[in-house]
Amino acid sequence: TANLKKINHELRQRVLQLLDKKQVVERQADRLTCQNDHLCKELAIIAKLSEQLEKENELLLNTTDKELEEAKTQVRHQQNNIKKLEHTVKTLKSVILQTENEIRQGKSPSRLDAFIKTLEEDRDYYKSKTENLLRVLQNKSSSPKRSSTCGSMSTKKSHIQISQETAFNEKAHLQQRIEELETTVQNLDSERLEQMSRMALMKEHIDSLETEVKIMARKSQDSENELSHQKDEYISLSLMKEKTEQILSEAQRSLAKKKYEIQLNEEEIRHLNEKIDNFSKQSFAQEEKICALKDTIAQLDKEKETLQECVEEEREKIVTFEENLRIKEKTISDLEILISDLEHSIQKSAEALCICEKDITSLHQQLQETNKELAQANNNREILAQEKDRLQEHLSNAKQENQ
């Protein structure tokens, strides 16, 4: 009887210990679940940061490309303006040369007048073109001492320099962020290994618990056998035996329940192992993404060097363009002086034309006087007719010269 009480007390103690261990295992499983959730959130944050980094790199490249295209467009526009200005200068030179040649050749005043009108129209047209071009250049200039092209290109160069500095800062920030991400991944790997070791310890602990349960079951079976052998000898203790059997049956039910709970814990542990495997796969995928991101950054560095070379070439072209523009401005000033001289010569030609018109008027008056003399002097008609023919011939020659 004392042995049975002792065995029952030990069984109860073992059951309480098993319950405590079960609670400890459940708390550990909950803690591992929380840690896995935290790790999953960290991986999601890492993925978002990687996507944000790629978007920022793409935005930086697009901004740099747009600024370079704008600079190229501005340079092409200025080149077109210079070509138009050169064409205008050539046209003016040809017109001036043609006018000088015709003046030297002594063309008739009427034809000279028509040519002067055409020349004045061309002069007004090219003057308006020149004034419009100068006004556009002055409106686009950033300072009163520099042309519009210099101001716009200096602004573009400052924008490009600011973009380059921003790109360098973004690159340093991204490299620092990648190092932080690599450190986080290493910490996550160490935590994963620590969790795997803890899970192995938990499995060993569960195996030891199962062994103890089996030992307790064997002890319970031995107690039942001993009670069956002593049944005849301890008839007076049959009530106590029944109570003991009830306690044992309850203990067996409790053990069965504990076994079922242990099986549930094993399934939860198996589920945790699957989560750990998934986490390992996700971690490996993140490492691959980080490697791809590093390759992308290296490619971006190469593209940045290429862009810098292009910028240097554009700067050299801009310097050449500025020199050509100064030469063209000097040519325009010379052309303005030539135009003023041409206007002066045109004024002189107009005065000569007025003198010719006065001569023609005088000839008409002489013709009228001759007609009067012919009417009055019939006797000298033949002589006057010859004089008239001579005068008419002279008049026709003068008209031809005027035409």
TrEMBL record:
InterPro entries reported in the protein's UniProt record: Centriole_BasalBody_StrucProt
UniProt GO cellular component terms: centriole
Coiled coil: 8-102, 164-331, 360-401
Localization (cell): Cytoplasm, Cytoskeleton, Microtubule organizing center, Centrosome, Centriole
Coiled coil keyword on record: yes
Major location category of this protein: cytoplasm
Alphabetized UniProt keyword annotations: Coiled coil, Cytoplasm, Cytoskeleton
SUPFAM superfamilies to which the protein is assigned, alphabetical: Tropomyosin
Membrane-crossing segments per the record: none
PANTHER family: CENTROSOMAL PROTEIN CEP135, TESTIS SPECIFIC 10
Family: Belongs to the CEP135/TSGA10 family.
Protein name, entry field: TSG101 and ALIX binding domain-containing protein
Organism in which the protein naturally occurs: Bambusicola thoracicus (Chinese bamboo-partridge)
